[in-house]
Amino acid sequence: MKVHIWAENRPLEQARERMAEFYPHGIEGVLADMLRSCTDWTVTTSTSLDEEYGLCETLLQDVDVLVYWSHKYWREIPDTYVDILQNRVLNGMGLVLLHSAHASKIFSRLLGTRTQTLRWRESDDSQRVWVVRPAHPICSGLQKEYFDIPQDETYGEYFEIPQPDELVFLTVSSQGEVLRSGLCYHRGRGKIFYFSSGHETYPVYYQREVQLVIKNAVAWAKCTDTYDTWPVWARKAELLGGI
Ligand code: ZN
User: Fold this and answer.
1) Residue-wise over 129-150: b if at least 16 C-beta within 10 A, else e?
2) What pLDDT, on the 0 to 100 scale, is given for residue 232?
3) Rounded to the nearest whole angstrom, what is the distance from the C-alpha of residue 166 to the centroid of ligand 1?
């Protein structure tokens, strides 16, 4: 199992100090350490500051699941890389989209939405994440019907998304906003999970429940169909983009 974690890693001026305090090795660093400590998966990382925006085709070629955290600079990812990501997902790469990745080009490309379409504010509010599909593998190990995040950016409806194949979490802020916050989709052979919690100026990614959700999501997103067993007619290049 090969997992790659990609993060934008370009905090805005006003967020730089707090991000350095909580995530001195980046959000990708915290998530990679967490996955390495509790699984035997091969975990690699890159950021938008790396060559080819950290998304070169060779790097993604044998990745089973990509974890993707982006924020403000989503416009700068050239469409060529969005094409590569989309192709990989349609051909079976799992994709776990975190937090502001709702604004990314790959999110809108795969889900057919416009970008940046939800309500948001930054005011240190607490968030209650409700489990609305308790039997889903992504909820495995959660002890209660909800968990609280002491401080996070607030996201709320209306969130312009297609109806998810499975809605797993619903988040309520202390001021009353609600958000469909844990969403599963299937596109081609690929499985996609979006999870909204985790702004860069809060230590959300150290929280046990959040880590558990991300670990479970990566495990869930791994493609489980065996292409080799597909009938020949279904394996035709024109149907599957030449896998
Ligand atoms: Zn944010």
Assistant:
1) bbbbbeebebbeebeeebbebe
2) 79
3) 24
